[in-house]
Amino acid sequence: MKFYSICFECSDLEPNNYVYSIGEVEADLIALCVCPYGHKIVMRIGYNLCDILYSSAVLAFVKDCLSESVMSFAASLERAYEMFTKVTLHKENISYDVIELYWKDLSKQSERQYGAFCTQFLKSFGEPWKTNQKMVEFRNKVIHKGYIASTKEVTEYAEYITESVYKILKHLHANYDNESTMHYFHEAKKNQDKIKELMTKHKAKVGGASTISLLNWNIMDMPEMKFSEAVEKMRKLQRI
Question: Mean pLDDT for each 10-residue chunk of the chain (240 residues)?
């Protein structure tokens, strides 16, 4: 996923002349950005992976890359499951060292990850998580069987994912805000060695940046977001 950042070195030289550096965001939310003049900066994106994947999915939808959109939407929901599970386990006074070992055993088994999430959701809110089997079957058709979906079908799936991911993040925002912040810093800390390595290898500076959260994660009351609203916001961003 492409990431754009103002080049700090160019800004220091010419404050009124904005030059952008461009990089690729990877799963660790780190991007090595380079401007047209060769200045390099290592950026740590200040959001959670599920939010970034959701934005990537909406962007793919806007560009009519529908199969890619479905894959990113599905990944966004899975990472929301992971985040909720880890945050709530840490709330139970389980250390992140133990949580990471536990999750490592589940990392390649999506059904076990989903089971762990459902258990934590039930323990946290006293009600079972409700999934939509029709949407699960649709996802599997697209990802595993190469099914070419229509815009209408992908829109329906995107609405389901938007509602589900928003519900998870809203619960975290309302009930586990401090623990969610701790989770963010835990994830950032894991990447410190890679950031230092990139800085040394490329003689780059380091910076932090935020993107616009289509799910309103960065807004205090986290107002509900509909998929149609996310699409419109993404289209506006593409015109900037």
Answer: 83 83 85 93 83 93 96 96 97 95 91 96 95 96 96 98 94 92 86 88 82 74 89 83
Give the separation between CA 23 and CA 5, rounded to whole angstroms: 8
Residues sharing a CB contact under 8 Å with residue 28, sequence separation 6 or more, in sequence order: 190, 191, 194
Who contacts 147 (Cβ-Cβ below 8 Å, separation ≥6)?
141
| Inter-axis angle of helices 177-190 and 151-175, nearest 10 | 110
Lookup: tokens for 71: 């894959």
Token code pair at residue 192 = 């410190």
Asked whether the beta carbons of 191 and 28 are under 8 A apart, the reply is yes
Quote the tokens at residue 50: 């599920």
Indicate the pTM of the whole model: 0.86
